[in-house]
């Protein structure tokens, strides 16, 4: 398996070779974000601004204002905090063509310190008008997302991860913003996930089938904004909806799904798998996922608990 950030670096070079109006900025993390691959190939279009995320996001707006397609790169937590004012003013309010690439989403920045985990970035960015908020779940999707970001003129926040994930899509898979992907059919329960949690949702669905004879539908809600309301309401026709995210359950995917369900008066129990309103410690990625109840067993347990609510 290969890390999403490696697919990202390769995609920047691939599409940057075709589109000479692409420029790339980084906040002194080009080795970590893999934007350095673009910098090595096209040094005249690469700008390392140093540890100055707010300045970088403002520069991104400037490049967009003169017709460039700028990709800004740093850890997701700093892009959506230090860079938020420019994202809000120039991306959201002014609708400039800014591409904000949030590296190391969730707890994937395992060892750099608790402040480096991005557990609230999706919640922050989906409140900004005009922004698309998209979360990559495998390498083939990363490639498509970069192509999409270049072709579509609007501000975007794209969340990536440091970790390796197995491929869940074919190389020539086509995606449509606003349309989720149903990766597994099932009528008993629907598991809605994004990012690195998609493969865990698929594994949990297999356990539910083999050990509990429960058919779980698995939906990759990679397009958080705009969100696929039709897929969510179809999921509500099962006995329960489970949302799965490596993000705080407040304001993230679970909240977005709940908004759709409640605003459409859908009467289905919803179970939330995610970070339970806490900051995360440091450690090996796999151990952090288990510690904060993001493992396959946690998804299975939450599904069984939520299905009992339907029976009541």
Summarize the structure.
The protein has 312 residues and is of the alpha/beta class. Helix content is 40%, strand content 20%.
Structure description:
Helix content is 40%, strand content 20%. A seven-stranded mixed sheet has the order 3-2-4-5-7-6-12, sandwiched between helices. The model has no long low-confidence stretch (mean pLDDT 96). The longest helix has 16 residues, at 197-212. The chain contains 13 helices and 14 strands. It has helices at 4-16, 30-33, 36-41, 53-65, 76-79, 84-93, 121-125, 139-151, 197-212, 229-235, 253-263, 285-291, 296-311, and strands at residues 2-3, 22-26, 46-48, 69-75, 99-103, 132-135, 156-159, 164-165, 181-184, 189-193, 216-220, 223-225, 241-248, 270-275. With 312 residues, the protein is α/β, with parallel strands linked by helices. α1 runs parallel beside α8 and α4 packs parallel to α6.
pLDDT average, as an integer? 96
Instruction: Write down the oligomeric state.
Output: single chain
Radius of gyration: 19 Å
Proportion of beta-strand residues: 15-25%
Widest sheet: strand ordering: 3-2-4-5-7-6-12
* Fraction of residues in H or I helices: 40-55%
State the distance separating the first and last CA atoms.
43 Å
Number of helices: 13
Report low-confidence residues grouped into runs of 5 or more: none
What is the number of E strands? Answer: 14
Largest sheet: 7 strands, mixed
């Amino acid at each position: 398996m290969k890390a999403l950030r490696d697919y990202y670096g390769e995609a920047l070079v691939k599409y940057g070779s075709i589109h000479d109006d692409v420029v790339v900025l980084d906040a002194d993390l080009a080795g970590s974000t893999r934007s350095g691959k673009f910098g090595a190939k096209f040094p005249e279009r690469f700008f390392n601004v140093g540890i100055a995320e707010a300045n970088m996001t403002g520069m991104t707006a400037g490049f967009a204002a003169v017709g460039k397609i700028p990709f800004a790169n740093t850890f997701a937590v700093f892009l959506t905090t230090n860079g938020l004012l420019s994202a809000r003013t120039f991306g959201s309010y002014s609708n400039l063509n800014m591409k904000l690439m949030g590296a190391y989403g969730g707890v994937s920045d395992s060892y750099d310190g608790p402040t480096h985990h991005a557990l609230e970035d999706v919640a922050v960015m989906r409140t900004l008008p005009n922004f698309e908020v998209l979360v990559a779940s495998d390498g083939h999707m990363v490639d498509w997302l970069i192509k999409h970001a270049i072709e579509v003129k609007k501000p975007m926040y794209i969340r990536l991860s440091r970790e390796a994930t197995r491929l869940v899509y074919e190389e020539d898979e086509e995606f449509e913003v606003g349309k989720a992907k149903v990766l597994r059919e099932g009528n008993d329960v629907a598991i809605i996930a994004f990012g690195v949690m998609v493969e865990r949702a698929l594994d949990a669905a297999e356990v539910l089938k083999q050990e509990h004879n429960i058919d779980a539908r698995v939906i990759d809600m990679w397009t958080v904004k705009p969100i696929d309301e039709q897929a969510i309401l179809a999921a509500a026709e099962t006995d329960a909806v489970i949302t799965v995210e490596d993000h705080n359950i407040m304001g993230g995917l679970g909240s977005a799904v709940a908004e759709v369900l409640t605003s459409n008066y859908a009467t289905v129990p919803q179970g939330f798998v995610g970070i339970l309103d806490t900051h995360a410690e440091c450690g090996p990625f796999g151990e952090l996922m288990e510690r904060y109840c993001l493992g396959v067993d946690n998804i299975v347990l939450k599904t069984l608990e939520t299905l009992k609510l339907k029976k009541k």
